[in-house]
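Fill in residues.
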């Protein structure tokens, strides 16, 4: 178990991504995935109010509804749910009124009394940051949210958020959710990790498996071999360095009897300030790799080798 920042949230160090629920995983499959995750010791679920509004026929909040129905059906103990605000079609942006309305809608869909971890999903520079910070603080004060966090914010804006929170005497953020993995490191390690270290914030990285590339499935740059937009996106990482990373993950994973994906997650878990990488599963059989990624402990030499082969990977890939 690991603790998120200065919060009282002790969680299994791998977060199950809920972006696929209601998208590539229907309700029945989503329930099976959640059951498998919980049975294996997982207790940290990540979603957003906008998942999955991009799917024809969906309205946004689809993932939250499925998670809420699963919680009501299974009544699991100790499950931590994180969700986000700013991108739902009906609740766009981070004005105080919108943050409040979106949180209330998420609570209804999830069927919980309070949101364990509530993220500002994307920065909204059209709204004064002090207003957004105050709105999140009010949600904590009123008991609708237990902990505040930010996602996709720059280091400077995170510092500004903390400054406003201190000035207003409201809840400080406890976590940051950045895009971070073995093939996307530079900006996070140079800018975000130092802020996290300074203010005792935990990183909960998304795209932990680089859109599937770090599962080892996509080793070809030949577009004709790709059967989905996800495969095409993942294949962009299949450079000489990217393939060396996969080969190294495979060798190290074999020594621990775990998959390439689990090894990539274990490396990310071992990085400074990282509490729990986020990874999703569209099929039940994929859950084991995620749970392995939350448990396997790489040696210092193995971590160093993966760090070496992934050094200087362009941060904007």
């Amino acid at each position: 178990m690991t603790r998120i920042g200065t919060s009282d949230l002790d969680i299994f160090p791998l977060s199950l991504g809920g972006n696929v629920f209601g998208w590539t995983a229907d309700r029945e499959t989503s329930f099976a995935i959640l059951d498998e995750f919980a049975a294996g010791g997982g207790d940290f679920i990540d979603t957003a109010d906008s998942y999955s509004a991009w799917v024809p026929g969906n309205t946004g909040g689809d993932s939250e509804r499925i998670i809420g129905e699963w919680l009501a059906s299974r009544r699991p103990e100790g499950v931590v749910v994180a969700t986000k605000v700013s991108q739902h079609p009906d609740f766009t942006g981070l004005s105080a009124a919108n943050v409040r309305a979106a949180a209330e809608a998420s609570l209804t869909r999830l069927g919980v009394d309070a949101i364990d971890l509530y993220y500002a999903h994307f920065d909204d520079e059209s709204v004064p940051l002090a207003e957004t910070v105050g709105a999140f603080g009010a949600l904590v004060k009123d008991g609708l949210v237990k902990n505040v966090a930010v996602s996709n914010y720059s280091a400077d804006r995170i510092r500004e958020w903390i400054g406003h929170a201190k000035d207003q005497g409201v809840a400080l953020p406890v976590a940051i959710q950045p895009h971070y993995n073995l093939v996307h490191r530079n900006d996070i390690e140079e800018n975000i990790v130092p802020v996290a270290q300074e203010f005792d914030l935990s990183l909960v990285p998304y795209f932990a498996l680089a859109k599937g590339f770090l599962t080892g499935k996509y080793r070809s740059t030949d577009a004709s071999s790709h059967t989905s937009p996800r495969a095409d996106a993942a294949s962009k990482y299949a450079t000489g360095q990217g393939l060396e990373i996969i080969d190294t993950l495979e060798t190290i994973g074999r020594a621990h009897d775990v998959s390439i994906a689990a090894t990539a997650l274990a490396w990310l878990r071992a990085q400074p300030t990282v509490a729990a990488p986020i990874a999703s599963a569209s099929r039940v059989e994929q859950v084991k790799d995620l749970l392995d990624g939350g448990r396997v402990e790489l040696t210092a030499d193995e971590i160093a080798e993966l760090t070496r082969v992934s050094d200087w990977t362009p941060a904007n890939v």
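The mean pLDDT is 95.
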